[in-house]
Amino acid sequence: MNDNQFKYSNSVIALPLFFVWFLWFVYWLQIKFDFDFFEYGIYPRTVSGLQGVFFSSFIHSDLQHLYNNSIPLLILLAALKYFYSKQTYAVVGFGIVFSGIITWIIGRDNYHIGASSLIYVFVSFIFFKGIQTKYYRLVALSLTVVMVYGGLVWYIFPKVDEQISWEGHLAGLITGFALSLFYKTPEYKKIIKYNWEHPDFDPMEDKFMQRFDENGNFVNLPIIEPEEEFPSYYSSNLSVDYTIVENEKNESKPEP
C-alpha cells in the first residue's frame, strides 16, 4: 500500500472536536447541577468500581484537569484518525475498556478518573505502531510524538506525583502497545517511478549507467558499424515452350 491511503476527511477534525466537546459537556453538567460523578470512577478491586471502566475517562476533577487533557486529545486523536483511520474507533473503544480494567486490577484504593489514561493509549499506539511498520512517514510521526510527549513516560512510575493516577497511565501505555501488536496495518510501499527504484534493477544493463566506468568516469560507448549487406540474385530455372500457330484464315484463303 502506498501514500494514497492517507487522505484528509472532515472526520479528522470532527471526531477530536466532538470527543473533547463531550468531555466539557459532562464537566458542565457536573458543575451546573452539582452532580457527584466521582463515584462513577474506577475503584480498584470492587464490584461497584467496575462501572468506572466505562465512565472514568469522561470524568474530571476540576477545570485544570480537563484542560490539560483536552489539548493532547485533540492532537493525538486527529493524528490517529488521519494515519490509522481504520483502527481509530477500535483503539478508542478498547483503549478505554482495557486500560480501565488494568487500572482496576493494579490501582490504589481510591477513585481513578480522567482521560489521561486514554492519552497514554494514543501515545503508545502511535509510537509503537509507527516503529513496527518501518514506513518513513509513520516512523517520523512516532519520533514527533516522542519529542512532544516523551516526558509523559515519567508519570507511569510511583512516587513521581501522589495526586495523579500513575496506575492509569501505566495501564494506558500497556494497552496501546498491546493494540499496536494486535491490529495489523498493510505493508506500506513507496510508489516506484523510475527503473532504478526496482529491487531487481541491474545497473550493468542500463544504457545510461553503461556510459560510466568502474571509477565513475564518463566514457564513450564503442561505435558498432552495421554489417554491409549484399544484394541477392536469383536464377530462373523455368523452361518456356514456344509454339507457332499458323493463322487459320490464311489456310482458308481461296486461290486467285
TrEMBL record:
Pfam families, A to Z: Rhomboid
Transmembrane helix is among the record's keywords: yes
InterPro entries per UniProt: Peptidase_S54_rhomboid_dom (IPR022764), Rhomboid-like_sf (IPR035952)
Stretches assigned to the Peptidase S54 rhomboid domain: 53-182
Main location: membrane
UniProt-listed Gene3D superfamilies: Rhomboid-like
Top-rank taxon, per record: Bacteria
Residue spans crossing the bilayer: 12-30, 66-84, 89-107, 113-131, 138-157, 163-183
A GO cellular component annotation in the UniProt record: membrane
Topological category with respect to the lipid bilayer: Multi-pass membrane protein
Compartments where located: Membrane
One record GO biological process: proteolysis
UniProt keywords, alphabetically: Hydrolase, Membrane, Protease, Transmembrane, Transmembrane helix
GO MF term (any one): serine-type endopeptidase activity
Protein name as annotated: Rhomboid family intramembrane serine protease
Source organism: Flavobacterium franklandianum
